[in-house]
Amino acid sequence: MAVYTKLSQAEMADLIADFFNGPLIHFDGAADGMENTTYFVTAEHAGKPQDYVLTVVETLSFEQLPFIVELTTQLNAKGLPIPCPLQDKSGQALKHIAGKPALLFPKVIGSHQLAVNQQQCFAIGELLGQMHLTTLNSSGPANPRDLNWCYAQLERFQNKLSTVDTQLLSRALEVCKQFEALPATLPKAAIHGDVFRDNVLFANNEVVAVIDFFMACEDHLLLDLATTVNDWCSTPGGDLDDVLYSALLKGYQKHRTLNASEKSHWPLFLQFSAFRFWVGRLAYEFDGLHNPEKAAAIYRDILSKRLEQGPTLCL
After folding, report:
1. Which of 209, 244, 271, 272 is found 20 to 30 A from 12 (Cα to Cα)?
2. Going edge to edge, which strands form the sheet with 24-29?
3. Are 201 and 111 in contact (CB under 8 A)?
4. Could you tell me how many helices (H) and strands (E) the chain has, helices first?
């Protein structure tokens, strides 16, 4: 959601003209984020100013985006608070601008809650359970950030890790060996893959939007849940906050009960998800992309705690 692709007034006006008869009124780039370019856009539609969000996709090709359009449209059609891309006058959602793919979304009024409470954790757990029920029979592209991706990233900077991080990595790689032999009894389907707090908008304690499906793929439902728990329910030191953790799982299982195999493999997924995001953030920092709110140290602490907790995390 940073501005990697700078658009001119004329480029934006031409794009908006494909969607609406009214003119472009104003647009501003969003400064936060790490991967795609985001603009907040105001244009006249139906005789009055309307607000939109334009995402210029920096990390995926045009050919990779129909899956995301279809997935968000499917979830939105089920009445879930998932904004889906708007279609232009010719019925096309995928657009080109400045040589890159782009999607225009309605802007949802809400706020990110980084210091979440029990009710908000229950709400996101409940919504994630509903999302998984909806996508249970849906397939999609394989997760590009799988275990092999983690290994490939580590080859770039493993020899530059501190002694403490090298020791943690050695412990984590033992978990990865277990992850290489997961049973077929663990359900896979289309998942969001990145339900972090900054990808969810609230109005009070109600979820009004889950956004940023650009890491969506087909993978284990348990990975999606573990990723959400690690972000939403961790204390600053990496421990699990029991109240938030219990609320999120209760909300999730209100709609989708985990099977016996998922419950027994739950600690492994919490550990692997923490490992994957630790490696991903180390890769960003190795490439010179530093964001204090997305620091690798946050997931180093979470991974360390999950490895310590081990079997005690079983459900």
Report:
1. 209
2. 24-29, 37-45, 48-56, 100-106, 95-97
3. yes
4. 9, 9
User: Is the pLDDT at 33 greater than 80, yes or no?
Assistant: no
Instruction: Give me the helices (H) in 158-295, please.
Output: 163-179, 221-232, 242-253, 260-286
Find where tokens 């603009």 sit. 39
- pLDDT tens for residues 200-242? 999 999 999 999 999 999 999 999 999 999 999 999 999 999 9
Residues whose CB is less than 8 angstroms from the CB of residue 217 and which lie 6 or more positions away in sequence, other chains included = 140, 141, 142, 143, 144, 190, 191, 193
Residue 313 is given by DSSP the state: G
Backbone angles phi and psi of 218, in degrees to 5 = -100, 125
Cα-based torsion angle of the residue sequence 93, 94, 97, 100 in order, rounded to the nearest 10 degrees: 160
* Residue 1 pLDDT exceeds 60: no
Amino acid at the residue 199:
N
pLDDT 10s digits, 106-147: 999 999 999 999 999 999 999 999 999 999 999 999 999 999
DSSP element (H, E) containing 49: strand 48-56
What mean pLDDT value characterizes the chain? 95
HSE of 5 in the Cβ direction (CA atoms, 13 Å)? 22
Instruction: List the structure tokens of 245.
Output: 């953790």
CB-CB contact of 61 with 101 (8 Å): yes
pTM above 0.85, yes or no: yes
